[in-house]
């Protein structure tokens, strides 16, 4: 006996017999399966969008990784390049001041050398944007390099013209004094150790033991060797171009008048001859017969920090040794 189903009809207020044939049941169940399948498919698509990596997603991730690596590499190159450039600019300025008595053209520009600073400044920007910024910075640094290169070429031309003159300019200390431990009495107004009155000290006194080796400070020709009043045993060297040096109060001399000498040649030993309070070397530099402060002519011998130290020592007042 077939199973009969009834459904209440609210319009007629009566129960009506329902179609329960196989065809009717199949249609209803088939539609339900389709709807369920559609819902499952949508769910799977949503899940795959988050969990399954598509080829395009892989490509984007790969490009982002490459961009980040390029950013790090560019940041490191930029920091290293700018550090080298600053060191070159500092050395360039020191050379110009010491040798050519001029200041090079100022090509320095404000730039960002800290990677952390750059990352803070560009927080929220894409790696490609930051990499582009660093590339622009590198272009700026290279432009500065090119300007410095041009300056160095001009500087080299000046050096070629002044090469002969440079080797004849006093530019080292007359004693071995790398650690600057030697007590120095400087140029200028000092108290005369014998008369106790202010006097103009024309050179620098290096307080050293008798027998300390003394060296020529530039190429030149020995113009005088012998005793001369208060200077005791001394050597005069004419370097040409208006430059001359004096080495006084010596104990022994190992050069003779008319002899050619080169910078660093051994000329004698320090002593206590002449008007001298203690063993020392009195060293003078004159330009066109006018005494100048010898400390200004140690540029080939001292680093900047050593030069500042020597300036400090030689500028102290007090009593000289001769």
Number of domains: 3
Radius of gyration: 44 Å
Name the helix and strand elements from N-terminus to C-terminus, one letter apiece: EEHHHHEEEEEEEEEEEEH
Secondary-structure class: alpha+beta
Task: Classify the helix fraction into a percent range.
Answer: 40-55%
Q: Overview of this structure, please?
A:
- The protein is of the alpha+beta class and 322 residues long.
- The chain has three domains: 5-51; 62-166; 183-314, Glucose Permease (Domain IIA) (Distorted Sandwich).
- The chain contains five helices and 14 strands.
- A hairpin with a 2-residue loop joins strand 13 and strand 14.
- The longest helix is centred in the N-terminal third of the chain and has 46 residues, at 55-100.
- The radius of gyration is 44 Å and the shape is rod-shaped.
- The termini are far apart.
Give the key terms.
about 325 residues, alpha+beta, Glucose Permease (Domain IIA), 3 domains, 10-stranded antiparallel beta sheet, two-stranded antiparallel ribbon, 14 strands, rod-shaped
Tell me briefly what this model is.
By secondary structure, this protein is an alpha+beta fold. Helix content is 42%, strand content 22%.
Write the layout of secondary structure elements.
Blueprint: E1 5-9, E2 14-18, H1 22-51, H2 55-100, H3 115-121, H4 127-166, E3 183-185, E4 188-191, E5 198-201, E6 204-207, E7 213-215, E8 220-227, E9 233-240, E10 243-253, E11 260-261, E12 266-270, E13 281-287, E14 290-292, H5 304-314
Antiparallel strand pairs: 1-2, 3-6, 4-5, 6-13, 7-12, 8-9, 8-11, 9-10, 10-12, 10-13, 13-14
Helix pairs in contact: 2-4
């Amino acid at each position: 006996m077939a199973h009969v189903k009834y459904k209440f009809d609210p319009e007629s207020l009566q129960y009506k017999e329902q179609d329960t044939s196989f065809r009717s049941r199949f249609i209803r169940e088939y539609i339900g399966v389709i709807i369920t399948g559609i819902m499952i498919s949508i769910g799977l698509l949503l899940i795959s969008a988050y969990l399954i990596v598509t080829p395009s997603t892989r490509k984007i991730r790969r490009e982002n990784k490459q961009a980040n690596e390029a950013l790090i590499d560019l940041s490191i190159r930029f920091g290293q390049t700018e550090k080298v450039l600053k060191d070159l600019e500092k050395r360039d300025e020191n050379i110009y001041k010491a040798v050519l008595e001029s200041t090079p053209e100022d090509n320095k520009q404000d730039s960002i050398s800290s990677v952390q600073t750059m990352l803070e400044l560009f927080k929220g920007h894409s790696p490609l944007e930051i990499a582009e910024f660093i590339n622009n910075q590198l272009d700026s640094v290279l432009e500065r390099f090119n300007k410095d290169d041009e300056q160095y070429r001009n500087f080299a031309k000046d050096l070629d013209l002044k090469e002969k003159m440079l080797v004849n300019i006093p530019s080292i200390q007359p004693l071995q004094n790398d650690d600057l431990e030697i007590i120095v009495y400087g140029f200028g107004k000092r108290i005369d150790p014998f008369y106790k009155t202010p006097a103009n000290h024309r050179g620098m006194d290096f307080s050293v033991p008798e027998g300390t080796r003394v060296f020529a400070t530039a190429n030149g020709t020995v113009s005088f060797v012998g005793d001369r009043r208060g200077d005791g045993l001394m050597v005069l060297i004419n370097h040409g171009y208006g430059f001359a040096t004096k080495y006084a109060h010596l104990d022994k001399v190992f050069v003779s008048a008319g002899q050619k000498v080169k910078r660093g040649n051994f000329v004698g030993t320090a002593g206590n001859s002449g008007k001298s309070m203690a063993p020392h070397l009195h060293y003078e530099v004159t330009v066109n017969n006018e005494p100048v402060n010898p400390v200004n002519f140690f540029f080939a011998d001292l680093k900047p920090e050593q030069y500042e130290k020597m300036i400090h020592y030689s500028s102290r007042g007090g009593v000289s040794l001769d």
